[in-house]
């Protein structure tokens, strides 16, 4: 009799709180689904914002590391304008900010390095301190996705550089250097091209 009474009480309690139990189960299920949906949406959103980052460097259509060396075989007054290029190819979908660092310059056997000069000082020296002009430049510092920008070296030495003394001095030095060290380049420029992921995306 005692067991039977207990069973009856249990069934009475279940009947009394049946609505509450059903409501609690439904409420918990809806909350669990809502949380799962929220987490899924957040995860999808984060994944959608991940962008690929892939920048290549090329010289004469050959892939290189970020370091480039330009060798100039000969220089003399009235020489044809000289140009050589390195390509910065952005095949990703993230823009990049490009710049270069001059590591070493050698002109007729005399070396100037980044240990003694900043890149800005070396660029200014090459452009202004000789009868010939050596210009290092980028076509654009901002490399857009799917675009190619160029790092270039341009050398000019006109017949008349407005300084006959320097023309004669450096022309003689270039001639003697070629005779004393045949096969060695008159000018060597080593630079490092760097591209950082841009904070400005277009």
Account of the protein in words:
- The protein has 202 residues and is an alpha+beta fold.
- It has two domains: 1-50; 55-197, no CATH class.
- Helices cover 37% and strands 35% of the residues.
- Strands 2-1-4-9-7 form a five-stranded antiparallel sheet.
- A hairpin with a 2-residue loop joins strand 5 and strand 6.
What is the compact description of this entry?
By secondary structure, the chain is α+β, with helices and mostly antiparallel strands.
Question: What order do the helices and strands come in, and which of them pair?
Answer:
Elements: H1 2-48, E1 55-59, E2 62-64, E3 67-72, E4 79-90, E5 96-107, E6 110-113, H2 119-128, E7 133-138, E8 142-143, E9 148-157, H3 164-180, E10 187-197
Antiparallel strand pairs: 1-2, 1-4, 3-10, 4-9, 5-6, 5-8, 5-10, 7-9
> How is the largest sheet built, in terms of strand order?
2-1-4-9-7
Rounded mean pLDDT is 79
The assigned structural class equals alpha+beta
Percent helix range: 25-40%
Rg, nearest Å:
36 Å
General form: elongated
Distance between termini? 82 Å
Number of helices: 3
The protein's oligomeric status is single chain
| Main sheet characteristics | 5 strands, antiparallel
Proportion of residues in extended strands: 35-45%
Give the topology string: H per helix, E per strand: HEEEEEEHEEEHE
Report the count of strand segments: 10
Give the domain tally. 2
Low-confidence stretches: 30-51
